[in-house]
Design a protein that fits this description.
The structure is a single chain. By secondary structure, this protein is mostly beta strands. Helices cover 11% and strands 33% of the residues. The protein folds into 2 domains: 121 residues, Beta Barrel (Lipocalin); 190 residues, no CATH class. The strands form 5 sheets. The protein has an 8-stranded antiparallel barrel. The chain has a 4-stranded mixed sheet with strand order 9-15-16-17. Bound molecules: zinc ion (ZN). Zinc ion binds next to loops.
Length: 341
C-alpha cells in the first residue's frame, strides 16, 4: 500500500546495531556458544524497545508477510512491509525487502522473546512478543501473568454502558468500554468511513463523502479530525467523547498486556493495563464493497489522523487473521473506539 515511501527499517536497524556494537561491552562468546538451539513459534507481533517511547514493532504473519513500524516519541515514524522465511531447524530468519534481503540468526530466550544477530553482528537485539497465544489462560511460565487470556469475565462495573475505563496509562487517557453505537463491550457497534458520521449500505469511493468523483481525488478535511464535526464519536456521543489520536491508539496497544480471547461469546482483543483494569476490542471486521465482513477474525479501529504523505489513507490499528498494520483507505468502514475527553 505504501511502498517506497519510507527509509528502510532494516537500514535503520543496521545503523542502530552498528552504534550499539560500538558502545557495548561484555560480549560473551563462550556463553552464546553453549546455548541450545530451540525453536518456538515465530509468527506474531514483536516489539524491540530502545526507549520508552521509541521502539520498533514487527509483525511476522502466518502467510510469510511481515510489517515493521518504527515509533519515535510514541508516534509512528516509519513503516514498511516485507516478506520473510524462517527455518525452524537452523533458526535462520531471512527478511526480503523490496530489492534486498537481510539474514538474521534467531536465538530464543523463551517462547515469548528472542534475540537476533544480523549477518554475524554480535550485538543483542531482544524482541518481546506483544500478544499472547490465543486462550493462553494458564500460567505456563509461572510468571504470575495468568488470567490474561481465556474467557474474560468482568470489564465494566455494571450494565450502564458506556463506562470510562482507566488503564493507568502514562498519558492519562481514559478509554470507552465499548465502540461507537454499541451498548456493551462485545457488541460491534457502527461502521464508519473516515470522517463520516452516519452509516451507509455501500462503502466504496463513489459513496465516500470526501471523495471527489469528478477529479477522482480525496478531499482534504484536515489532518486531524478528533473533536471536530467529522469525528463520529464526538458527534454521536457528545462533548465528553472523541476519536482517539494516533498516539493514543499506539499507547493503548503497546503499553499494555493483551491477548486474544472471548468475552460474552465474542472473540476479540483483551487489553490489560498495569492497574489490572481491562478493555475489550471485539473482532468486528470492516465494511467494504466486494469483501466479506470478517467479523470474528479481524478488527479495524480508526484514529483521528490522516496520513499526511498520502491523504487517501488515515491511520488506524488493524489486527487480522492475515496480519496487522496501521493505516487504511479512508472510504472503508471501520469501528471507532472513543476516548474520554
Ligand atoms: Zn461498560
Amino acid at each position: 500500500m505504501k511502498k517506497n515511501r519510507f527509509l528502510y527499517v532494516s537500514m535503520l536497524m543496521m545503523a542502530l546495531l552498528g552504534s550499539m556494537v560500538a558502545t557495548s561491552c561484555g560480549d560473551d562468546e563462550e556463553e552464546v556458544g553453549k546455548k541450545e538451539v530451540v525453536s518456538h513459534k515465530i509468527q506474531g507481533m514483536w516489539k524491540y524497545a530502545f526507549g520508552d517511547e521509541d521502539f520498533i514493532v514487527m509483525f511476522l504473519n502466518a502467510d510469510s508477510t511481515g510489517y515493521m513500524i518504527e515509533y519515535d516519541n510514541g508516534e509512528i515514524d516509519k513503516n514498511k512491509a516485507f516478506t520473510y522465511n524462517y527455518n525452524a531447524e537452523t533458526n535462520l530468519l531471512t527478511v526480503y525487502w523490496d530489492t534486498y534481503q537481510d539474514k538474521a540468526v534467531v536465538q530464543w530466550i523463551n517462547e515469548d522473546s528472542f534475540r537476533w544477530n544480523f549477518d554475524g553482528d554480535k550485538e543483542i537485539m531482544i524482541w518481546n512478543r506483544q500478544i499472547l497465544d490465543e486462550d493462553n489462560a494458564d500460567d505456563a511460565e509461572g510468571d504470575g501473568m495468568d488470567g490474561m487470556g481465556g474467557t474474560a469475565s468482568l470489564i465494566c462495573p455494571d450494565d450502564n454502558h458506556p463506562h470510562i475505563i482507566d488503564l493507568g496509562l502514562p498519558s492519562g487517557t481514559k478509554w470507552c468500554c465499548c465502540n461507537v453505537d454499541a451498548t456493551a463491550p462485545e457488541e460491534f457497534g457502527g461502521y464508519y468511513a473516515w470522517g463520516e458520521t452516519s452509516e451507509k449500505s455501500v462503502y466504496d469511493e463513489n459513496t465516500y463523502a470526501y471523495f471527489d468523483n469528478n477529479t477522482a481525488k480525496y478531499i482534504n478535511i484536515g489532518s486531524y479530525i478528533t473533536g471536530t464535526s467529522y469525528d463520529v464519536a464526538h458527534v454521536k456521543m457528545g462533548d465528553s467523547w472523541c476519536m482517539p489520536t494516533n498516539a493514543q491508539l499506539t499507547e493503548l496497544i503497546f503499553k499494555n498486556r493483551f491477548s486474544i480471547t472471548s468475552y460474552n461469546g465474542v472473540r476479540g482483543l483483551l487489553i490489560t493495563g498495569q492497574n489490572k483494569n481491562q478493555l475489550f476490542l471485539p473482532f468486528a471486521g470492516k465494511k467494504r464493497v466486494g469483501y466479506p465482513l470478517d467479523a470474528g477474525d479481524d478488527f479495524f479501529y480508526w484514529a483521528g489522523n490522516v496520513d499526511e504523505e498520502n491523504i487517501k489513507f488515515a491511520y488506524d490499528f488493524y489486527f487480522t487473521s492475515y496480519g496487522a498494520g496501521i493505516s487504511d483507505w479512508r472510504y472503508i468502514a471501520h469501528s471507532v473506539r472513543p476516548v474520554h475527553k
